[in-house]
Amino acid sequence: MKEVLKYSGCFVCGDKNACGLKARFFFDGDRVVSEITADEIYEGYRGIFHGGIISTLLDEVMIKAILAREIYAVTAEIEIKFIKPVKTGDKIKLTGRVTRTKGRLYFTEGAALDENGEPFAEATGKYLEARPELKEILVQSVERNR
Length: 146
Hints:
Layout lengths: L1 E2 L22 E2 L4 E6 L5 E3 L2 E2 L1 H17 L5 E10 L8 E12 L2 E9 L5 E11 L2 H10 L5
């Protein structure tokens, strides 16, 4: 599997963001995967991982499925279905893939799964391929030393 491009300052995947998640994302040719452990510094309630962080991770894994193809896009819409709470200390497996495209619009699905493959949350998203002027800015952010 190949590691997906990243920006070192990104809250989710950046290895130089002091308060970030430092998640690494890998592309297997069809989907992007990542694994993290729910750290207590991202609690929403005592012992419960914040739902906003789960949403952020799902957004990231879905957009990484597009970026893995070296297509630069931005989030247009995401929908999250929370199924069960993530407890701090839980391991989370994230998966994301492109389901279809329509012009510059990419449709995706993602999941946050427990160690048994049961979902904590599922998501769908729509991402818009960046126009040239925005793409130029996005391209300057990513690191290509993979």
